[in-house]
Amino acid sequence: MTAALAVQRVYKRFGATEVLCGVDLSIEPGERHALIGPNGAGKSTLFNLIAGGGRPSAGRIELFGVDITRLGPAAVNRRGLARSFQNTSVFAGLSVFDNLRCAALFAERGRGSRWRRWTHARAASERAEQVLDAVGLGARAQVLAGTLSYAEQRALDLGLALAGGAHTLLLDEPTAGMNRAEAARAIELIRSATAGRTLLMVEHDMDAVFGLADRISVLVEGRVIATGTPAAIRSHAAVRAAYLGDGFER
Ligand SMILES: Nc1ncnc2c1ncn2[C@@H]1O[C@H](COP(=O)(O)OP(=O)(O)OP(=O)(O)O)[C@@H](O)[C@H]1O
């Protein structure tokens, strides 16, 4: 089967510093994959490269078999990969619904006849309605996005990626800055709203990682030292030594 996302022998150097040293990752369509590792391991650098925010020094990145190594962020996004940021990217002055409609319109942006543009506008509104419910913001549709709570803004941010039609999502610390109850709700929301899509997330919260991921890769000093199911990673001696610690019993 063609991988949804394939990272092949990827290196990244900044000057004399080698931050990524031959990273391989293969993520199946529909898989939820978490990337964990200590601070400075290179997780954000790898995310940037996948999303088109930089070029690897060497190696190749494929999205559903298509080489995206040298594409910029907009071109990668057009091919169905969306990245959500810790700093949410919602339009504060627009309503929740209009945020979602804009994302859907942008994805549906139609050229051609007036009739075709009208049908695109209608399809965008319908998609916005669907996503609104999927991310649990149905009751907040007409509220200005800037007045949402932080957790709601993260939900809307996820909604923007879904409304844009992304089949592959990169989530950057989706529960960062949330209390335990908010984080637990966010995990459930991500699980239900992204069903059937491919997910790669960087996350430090081990409840979120072990609760959501089908497989986990552990990055240490620019190298993937282990990839496996949560159970395999939990009991992996090198992972425990390098990252989880011996007190980790979840
Ligand atoms: N543009 C850059 N120029 C030079 N060094 C960089 C650059 N970007 C990142 N680095 C270095 O690369 C290393 C990896 O950083 P990165 O942010 O990818 O790690 P991380 O695993 O995401 O860490 P954290 O969990 O703290 O976010 C760090 O030592 C960082 O200082």
Automatic annotation (TrEMBL):
GO terms for molecular function: ATP binding; ATP hydrolysis activity. It comes from the Bacteria. CDD domains: ABC_Mj1267_LivG_branched. It holds the Pfam family ABC_tran. InterPro entries: AAA+_ATPase, ABC_AA/LPS_Transport, ABC_transporter-like_ATP-bd, BCA_ABC_TP_C, P-loop_NTPase. Residues 5-246 form the ABC transporter domain. The keyword Membrane applies. GO terms for cellular component: plasma membrane. Keywords: ATP-binding, Cell inner membrane, Cell membrane, Membrane, Nucleotide-binding, Transport. Gene3D superfamilies: P-loop containing nucleotide triphosphate hydrolases. This is ABC transporter ATP-binding protein. It comes from Paraburkholderia acidicola. The lineage of its organism: Bacteria, Pseudomonadati, Pseudomonadota, Betaproteobacteria, Burkholderiales.
